[in-house]
Amino acid sequence: MKPTILIVDDDRSFRILTETALAGEGFEVRTAGSLRKAREELDGGAPDVVVLDRRLPDGDGIALLQEMSAAGPVPMPVIVVTAYGDIDSAVSAMQAGAVDYLSKPISVTDLAIKIHKVIETRGLRDQLALANVAHRKPTDVEPQSAALRRVHAELERLGRSPQTPVLLLGQSGAGKQFAAELLHKLTYADRQGAPFVDVNCAALPEQLVESELFGHERGAFTDAKTTRRGLVEVANGGTLFLDEVTELPESAQAKLLKFLDSGRFRRLGGQRELEVELRVTVATNRDIVDLVERGRFREDLYHRLAVYVVRVPPLAERKEDIPLLAKSFVDFFGRRVKKRIAGISDSALAALCRYDFPGNVRELRNIIERAVILSNGPILEESAIVLGQPRLGQAKPAGFFTVDLMPDGAPPSLETVERAYVARVLDHMSGRRLVAAHALGVSYPTFLKRLREFGMSADDNHARPGEQNERPPIT
């Protein structure tokens, strides 16, 4: 089932261009040119993500955002479009409930990256929101496994030290995002409105990383027509969460280290030092120690970030948590698709508990979502549970890729081999970048970043009509 995106913008050309581009990425796209039409579309079914312009012919998009935020305990994710880098407008949108924002003129590639990121984290955000509805405070959510109880105990201790950097390690989909948000709620339980700023480091264009994180002064570079606060300033008084931190370029690593040491920074092109108070939480699913040893990540920054390391265990190590997670997902998706599903059968739970979940909590969420859609009765039965889906585009054991020696008989460079391999995988997947990224085991933003580094197009629409029907779960 394709994720559904609702584009709300009064610019017809933008709607057509965006619909075409996102449809090529495997999304089902609906559009609206006014608040009235947007409300009609929402009445016809909740999309997975809403892209919402502020300036509409019949009002401010923030009004619709506030309506959606108040509609239920788990509002649908909204990415707000703001005009010309108006950071105050972006901040007000985030305070009203938006999960992210973009400034016009919009890059469709950047929009696709943000949508993928929202969908990647949606399941974990849903889980946290549902837990908060059922329990008055996050500390009341009692995990069943000893492994996760240890993680929660660590996070509760860390909640009393709001300045301590935290490094979250764990497999993709294990729940690092959820852990970061829970730590934030524990830290600022008595302070409503403390900002939680989520930054996907792999999605930041390398040439703009410093500006995005630390802001810039007017005239700092060609397009800097106004002074802009960076995400560090936006996170002041709360949490700055740097996901996929190992993807930061070395120049940004150096400036991040200096900021962590002093709590001070300068905007790009600025002379005055600014000071903020916040917690920096970072996460990675890569072997960061190996990256340090190979010179791919600064050793001094690693030691500064690793003041406190929390390992989020994979779901296979905490199977006692599967029944509670499964039941909460059944309840949530039952509400989302308007099905009255009272629970899940013992045999279905037993089947889930026997499975090792290589995709962790994210895979469990996808399995339950699919099962709820397929289910026709009041109880989710084992027959609706589909486990161990074969991965699309899995390479054959032999004959998939070969490496030729250079004309002088020398082996090619590692970069040459990697570039050729990525090109081969893309070709094997008929140009479907999302499926290629899934087959390579990397996130979609990381894959786009590598394409740019190799000088391969990350902006063209490679997909051909009909090729997006078969695609992996977006995780």
Break the fold down into its secondary structure elements and pairings.
Layout lengths: L3 E5 L3 H13 L3 E5 L2 H9 L5 E5 L1 E2 L2 E2 H9 L8 E5 L4 H9 L4 E4 L4 H27 L11 H13 L7 E4 L6 H12 L8 E5 L8 H6 L16 H4 L4 E5 L6 H13 L1 E2 L8 E2 L3 E6 L3 H6 L5 H7 L2 E4 L10 H15 L6 E2 L1 H9 L5 H15 L4 E2 L33 H15 L4 H8 L3 H10 L22
Parallel strand pairs: 1-2, 1-3, 3-6, 6-7, 8-13, 8-14, 9-10, 10-13, 15-16
Antiparallel strand pairs: 4-5, 11-12
Strands, count:
16
What's the story with the biggest beta sheet?
Answer: 5 strands, parallel
| Number of DSSP helical runs | 18
State the domain count. Answer: 4
Cα separation of the termini: 14 Å
CATH topology of the largest domain: Rossmann fold
Give structural attributes.
alpha/beta, Rossmann fold, 4 domains, 475 residues, single chain, globular, five-stranded parallel β-sheet, Helicase, Ruva Protein, domain 3, disordered C terminus, 42% helix
Account of the protein in words:
The chain is an alpha/beta fold. It folds into 4 domains: 4-115, Response regulator (Rossmann fold, 3-Layer(aba) Sandwich), CATH 3.40.50.2300; 135-313, 3-Layer(aba) Sandwich (Rossmann fold), CATH 3.40.50.300; 316-384, Helicase, Ruva Protein, domain 3; 394-475, Arc Repressor Mutant, subunit A (Orthogonal Bundle). 42% of the residues lie in helices and 13% in strands. The strands form 5 sheets. The protein has a 5-stranded parallel sheet with strand order 2-1-3-6-7, with helices on both faces. The chain has a 5-stranded parallel sheet with strand order 9-10-13-8-14. Strand 1, helix 1 (12-24) and strand 2 form a beta-alpha-beta unit. It starts with a strand and ends in a 22-residue tail after the last helix. Mean pLDDT is 80; it is low at 126-141, 390-398 and 460-475.
